[in-house]
Amino acid sequence: MSLKKLARRLHAPYLGTVVKGGVEGIQIKPPLLNRSLRRDFVRLGRRFGETGAFDPQIVARLKDEVYHPIPEHQAVYDRIYADYVTLHDYFGRGANDVMKRLKAFRVEAREG
Asked: pTM of the entire structure?
C-alpha cells in the first residue's frame, strides 16, 4: 500500500515522507541500538501531527547521526550484504514458506 493510500484510509492529508539515508544496516543491528533513532522518528511524527511543523531539535539530531563505513571492512560488508539479500529473497519473497510454517507451529504450540 502506498503512503498516499494509507493517508486516504486514515482520512488524513498526505503531506510527504521523511527519509533518512545511511541506515541500511538498521535491520541487522540489535533493537537496543536503534531505539533512540526510532524514538526520534516517533517524536518527529507526533510533533508534525500536532503542529504541522518539524521540531528543529529532532531534525538536527537526526542529521548529526552519521555512520561511516570502515574502508578496510568493505569485503566483510559485501559478504554480509550478499547473505542478507539471499535471506531476504528466500524468506521475504516467498521462495520458501518455512517462516509461515514456523509461525503456525508456534500458534499451535501456544494453543495447546
From this structure: 0.40
